[in-house]
Amino acid sequence: MSRGVVALLCAVPAEERMLRRLAGPQVRIVVMGMGPATAERHATAAIDGGACAAISVGFCGALDPSLSVGDVVVPERVRDALTGEEWECDAALASGAGRRGGTLVTTDHVVADPALRAALKGLAVDMESSGAARACARAGVPFAAIRAVTDRTGDRLPDLAGVVDDAGNVHAMRMAGRLIIHPGAIPAWVRLARGASAARRGLVPAVTRALADAA
Length: 215
Prior knowledge:
Blueprint: E1 5-10, H1 13-19, E2 27-31, H2 36-48, E3 51-62, E4 72-73, E5 77-80, E6 86-88, E7 103-106, H3 114-118, E8 124-126, H4 129-139, E9 143-151, H5 172-181, H6 186-214
């Protein structure tokens, strides 16, 4: 690649597994864990290790009601919900992934309540991209984000606390215990699993096209 090594920065092992086929001498897959702080640390380490550009890749939740589950989001900018800082995304780096537009908002926690999510005012929400964008801006390397929607604006997310750890690992036994105690949560978990499957189908081709166009 003319840009040198590109780091694909993802949050959880499930995202790494779907991106693994894209890894090679000039494409490095980095699992960051969940949250902007750990994303910033891992992005910095990737840059220090030779990455010349970075793309935040993975799932997101819709903030714009026009977005459907499975849609691919290629934002123009990323905003940190806590600090209000914004970073412009590199247009050329993700040009092949799809139409660019809007703001991807990063929070430091899962925003499960649709009413709280609506207050964020953007295109979509994730938990890692602002940290990665901050690290790239500090180092002066190109940054972009490619995210796929797992849940719509009106969807209430299941309670992930204690079931999904900070590294993004799902603890099956804890989930089973939670569902036994709270069977009413089963539809939300099923909806999220289906959303992740739909997002996965759109995300990998979009990232593949972006890497090909950046070559």
